[in-house]
Amino acid sequence: MTNSAFNTPPQTPPNFDATPEELISNTRAIIDKTRSLQDAIIASVPLKKATLANVLLPLAHDENASLCKRKISKFYSSTSTSAELREASNASEALFTAFDSETLMRKDLFELVHAVFERRVNLDNESQFYLEYKHREFARNGMGIIESEKQKRFAQIKVELHEKLIASRKSINSSSGIWLGESELDGVPDNIRKGLKKGEGEKAGKLWLPFKKPHYDAALKYAKNPTTRKKIYVGNDNRCPDNVPRVKEIVLLRDETARLLGYENHAEYQLEVKMAGSTGFVNDFLSGFREKLTMIARKELEALKALKAQNLEETALQSGVGTDTFFTWDYNFYSNISKAQNHSFDEKKFSEYFTLEKSLAGMMTTFSRLFGLQFVEIKPDENSTFGNEHVMTWHDSVSVFTLWEGSEDSDACNQGEFVGYLYLDLFPRDHKFNHAGHYLLQPGYFSEDGEYHYPSSALVMNLPTPQPGKPTLLSHDSTRSLFHELGHAIHNLVSRTQFAIFHGTATTRDFVEIPSIMLENWWWTPSVIKELGCHYSYISEEMLKAWEDSEGRENERPAEKLDDQSIQNLVATRRSNEALATLKQCHFAIFDMAIHSPSSREEVEGMNLSQMWNQTMSDITLMSGLEVEGEGWEWGHGCARIGAYIRGYDAGYYAYPLGKAYAQDLFKSMFEVDPMSKEVGMRYRRVVLEKGGSRNGMELLEDFLGRKPNAAARYEELGLAGGQLNPSRC
Ligand SMILES: [Zn+2]
């Protein structure tokens, strides 16, 4: 970014030229090649002579190369504008998944792996970890099932489950929204309202509010009319009706799988291979955490209720029942008002200092300094470097960067080693993944001849779409989210593992968020905010004009840098209603553990998930839904729209609160004193990030910290030093 020189990378970037037909034929060819390799190894290696070198390594080299193709093939389903390509992408992944099952059900192959496992000698750490991982993978995928009927059923479930997960993801990603009148959107910022589609015919005079993150969040936060917020919240909770029975079916299939494998339930199966290790550990953490948070949350809620009563009296708007009831759709709105009242934090003012372009540049500079990296954008006119036929991206709005070793202040870039490719797909469009996420497009690994294959990683966000002549301003939430996701991408890029399956963020799910949650702390550090912020009117003449058009020439132009008081006001908001917000997270995690750890099959069969979702929400978050208006407990089906439960965070949502606890431990212990310390940054890069998933996450944290991680830093920042309520927070 800071260096305009474009160095030719030693490896061509991925080519996004796939057609639906090719995607399928390539998938079949990859699978056929792997199957032939398996057959050849089984035919040529006797059990007595099986070693890592003649069984696992040839398979690993094949796996490394095929993973590069598979990840991109799968990626199209979340990002392509072509319905055919998205369909082909899903079909390709279904073929791969079916082949995974086939492979893991091969007794002859398992016997060879088992023979290597039994006589493992003198292996390097990563190879040893790989061998154990592969051996366990067979067991966890049915190799331990003796009876043939059960084996058959297990194989059936795998396919069925995969199909349901794809259908579920499709339902969650599909476009949905609500028509609202102009007046109903009173309070919602212009930048959101002006981008809304206008209705025609019988919808004339109405605006279409899509249930996409920026629109949904802004509407719940700013819409003054409580009925509007209720409509939006309830509409969103009911936007995936086809998923309501499907999620239950998924939970049942997971439960059946776990029982076939000899586990008590799905949660026990999931936790066996996680950093947390057991359901007991997770449930203890969640219940203890919830209990302590509730003490603070009750006080926060009292204050929000008072604010609501005052607001309703002033505006004479009625919310349905008595003002003593605090609805879940009231939270963002009143929390925002309370932030503004109690902390004088002006979000609009903050966002004027953080345009997308400048924020991104600042973030890249931060990563450059911390981890000794250099970002260089590949401009569209440089694409021909890779040949005229080469399709650089999957959409015109995507930008591409190369990463190189070498810090910003040195001239090492030209001599620096190539690190990988970074793709930024930042703006919403139809059928695109509708939250903020990162995707490893191609993992890094060492090929058979010892050459390193460089990784490619993509950020997929839904930030406000830039408008000509206007600045694209980011809220503080958006900047943190962007930095968080960029953190995942950097993890993917700086990782260096021998095997592709361990590359970068291919860690356990309860570890993977820790590095990025830790990075969010930078956006609460005054010196960082001061340095990275710049009022948009100072960026260019065009932006100055945009400011004058928006605010009027006669007004005093804001200072170039954000003032210290505003930064202090922002930092003060960090703990604002944090207990209530964290209880919402606990609701997701506790519900997740409850549905995935039934004590019997009958228990899961008898579960009414929507009812459980709403009841646990009311119990845990202390906020109400439509049940208090006589609508019963099935007024909404929130659990049917939660992507995390079908994207691998099943019996795994606890990773967010636990990850935050450990992330805060890392930050406070190692980075807080000097968040820009290159020395600490580089050590963290080498000890933690570089290892990816090639070692147990707990061990990596212990290596970096010099002790086991704990939740003390998290309790302390919440005002719960030593687990007790700190009087200063009362
Ligand atoms: Zn994340």
What gyration radius follows from the Cα positions, in whole Å? 26 Å
**What ligands are attached or bound here?**
zinc ion
Beta-strand portion reads 5-15%
What gross morphology would you assign? globular
Task: Note down, in words, how this protein is organized.
This protein has 730 residues and is of the alpha+beta class. The chain has 4 domains: 125 residues, Endopeptidase. Chain P, domain 1 (Glutathione S-transferase Yfyf (Class Pi), Chain A, domain 2); 63 residues, no CATH class; 193 residues, Neurolysin, domain 3; 224 residues, Collagenase (Catalytic Domain) (3-Layer(aba) Sandwich), CATH 3.40.390. It is built from 28 helices and 10 strands. Strand 2 and strand 3 form a beta hairpin. Helix 1 packs antiparallel against helix 2, helix 1 runs parallel beside helix 3 and helix 3 packs antiparallel against helix 6. The site of zinc ion has 4 residues, from helix 16.
